[in-house]
Amino acid sequence: MKIATWNVNGIRARAAQVCEWLQRDRPDIVCLQELKATTAQIPAECRVADYHAYWHTLKGYSGVSLHVRKDLYAVDPVFSHPPFDRESRIVQVEHGDLVIASVYVPNGGKDYPAKLTFVTSLIDWSARLEAEGRALILCGDLNIARTEMDVHPKERKPNAVGQRPEERALFEALLGTRLVDMSRQFDPDNPNLFTWWAPWRNLRARNIGWRLDYVLASRALAARASGCIVQADVGTSDHAPVMMTLG
Questions:
Q1: Cα gap 99→127, rounded to integer Å
Q2: In sequence order, what E strands does the chain have?
Q3: How many Å apart are CA 224 and CA 226, to the nearest integer?
Q4: Is residue 85 pLDDT above 80, yes or no?
Q5: Average pLDDT rounded to a whole number, residues 153-169
Q6: CB 182 within 8 A of CB 217
Q7: What global pTM score does this model have?
Q8: Which residues pair with 55 in a beta bridge?
Q9: Are 77 and 52 in contact (CB under 8 A)?
């Protein structure tokens, strides 16, 4: 099973690229973020017949979606949102005891306390799922570079939003003993593993970036994974897809 996440930075601008990516890689679960469109504005070519889909949208801002291949479900899956969802930032689906979620954490540049509150709620929600005996795959743009290694040396700034100590502490609390950072499970010492590049000065081609996009998985699921890669050559979004393979 392939589980993928991608901040597309505008689904209308990236519709053809999303379709090409889906046809090429055939992920079973797809989580998209930063759609920047209403549901009515989602391009027709993105409504792929092979997938159950939920588009959780706002006009011109934010927005997430979750897509599940129809051969994984005998009936239409039930999509929902945790109570702390705001600005169309998280959608989840249940598959037996497994919960899969697509999430877009606020950037924090305009309202930093709101970002910290959102991540704290994410931690509490994850802990409740574990207490209920549920497994979790959390995918998306968390807008936090987990460690110094997750930011290129030229981009490291001690008080930059996304790199602050309290944000990184919350990230570690989210992982806790429950979740595994899948990219680092398979590539623990790579200092050049980034998923976001500022769209100027040719930074993407020079790989001067940040790692902001993650697949986090419960430990039992992480033990079954065979890989997790950043697809840095895909698309023209300022973010790259991340794809985990189970089994």
A1: 13
A2: 2-7, 29-33, 51-56, 64-69, 79-80, 90-95, 98-104, 135-141, 179-181, 213-218, 225-230, 242-246
A3: 7
A4: yes
A5: 97
A6: yes
A7: 0.97
A8: 65
A9: yes
- Residue in the structure block whose two tokens are 């110094």: 148
Three-state SS sequence of 83-150: CCCCCCCEEEEEECCEEEEEEECCCCCCCHHHHHHHHHHHHHHHHHHHHCCCEEEEEEECCCCCCHHH
Q: Domains in the chain, ordered, with CATH? A: 2-246 (3.60.10.10)
pLDDT in tens, 8-54: 999 999 999 999 999 999 999 999 999 999 999 999 998 988 999 99
Tokens of 193: 């593993």
**How high is the pLDDT of residue 89?**
98
Question: Is 104 a residue of the active site?
Answer: yes
Confirm whether 141 is a catalytic residue. Answer: yes
Would you state the pLDDT for residue 74? Answer: 76
Question: Of residues 54, 104, 181, 214, which has the active-site annotation?
Answer: 104
Of the residues 85, 141, 150, 181, which is catalytic? 141
* 39, 62, 65, 103, 120 from 56: Cα distances, Å: 7, 9, 6, 11, 21
Q: Is the pLDDT of residue 72 over 90?
A: no
